[in-house]
Amino acid sequence: MATAIYEDLSAAYNLENMKALMGTKDLLGAILRIHFILEAFLDIWCNKITNCEDFFDLKRFTSFDTKLEISKKLGLPSELAIVFKLFNKIRNKFAYRPNYVICSNDLDSIYQAINQINTNDDKNSKFSMIAFNGREIRWDTPDAPIIDSLLLNYFALSQKVNDVFANEFLKRNISFSVQVQ
Fold first, then answer.
1. Tens digits of residue pLDDT in 65-80
2. Containing H/E element for 180?
3. Which residues partner with 129 through β-bridges?
4. Quick one: average pLDDT of 78-87?
5. For 115, how many CA atoms within 13 A lie in the half-sphere containing its CB?
6. Under 8 Å CB-to-CB from 177, ≥6 apart: which residues?
7. pLDDT of residue 147
8. Residue (of 81, 32, 76) closest to 50 by Cα position
9. The pairing of beta strand 178-180 with beta strand 129-132
10. Mind giving me the DSSP string for 66-132?
11. Beta strand 178-180 with 4-6: parallel, antiparallel or unpaired?
12. Is 103 in contact with 76 (CB distance < 8 Å)?
């Protein structure tokens, strides 16, 4: 089965980061990698919408929340913004409370919000399982490790981001290159 990989999203899909994300058992490491990737999505959105190669050229002065607000002002669909904000809340809880424990309610909220994201692709309308390198992660697995639920949420979101970005850029007549793998 072929998968569409959007070349214009390559900054968010660094192969080493993706391997590390799928291979980690370190929850904090996974959260930080996901946060980094979500920030790359925001950079890509603003770069493409404004036709500016590096819209956030002063990255060290621009927080995730600020990038998200600017992205929303530049038309980032609210369904995506909601999910990005939910992931950011978890990251912030870890940043300010090192002993924070993610509860299933945090991840359920993200899962529900991801499933509210509309795409033109029926197969991506609702996610309940991902497979990666022979490993299956299912939403309905009783007592699934928190990291598995976190990864399922992230990978479901990333596929929806692919679809939404492609649709939004097409509507705006913005070039968005695709490579099938």
1. 999 999 999 999 999 9
2. strand 178-180
3. 138
4. 97
5. 12
6. 6, 7, 8
7. 86
8. 76
9. unpaired
10. HHHHHHHHTT--HHHHHHHHHHHHHHHHHHH-TT----HHHHHHHHHHHTT---S-GGGSS--EEEE
11. antiparallel
12. no
Residue with tokens 């603003």: 46
- Taking only the tens place, the pLDDT of each residue in 5-52 is 456 677 777 667 777 777 778 888 899 889 989 998 999 999 999 988
Angstrom distance (rounded) from CA 170 to CA 38? 21
- In the block, which residue shows the tokens 């399922």? 152
Q: Do residues 113 and 84 lie in contact, with contact meaning Cβ atoms separated by under 8 Å?
A: no
H or E element in which residue 6 lies: strand 4-6
Q: Give per-residue pLDDT as tens, 89-143.
A: 999 998 888 788 888 889 999 999 998 998 876 555 566 666 655 667 666 766 7
What is the DSSP annotation of 16-54? HHHHHHHH---HHHHHHHHHHHHHHHHHHHHHHHHT-TT
The dihedrals phi and psi of 179, each to the nearest 5 degrees, come to -135, 135
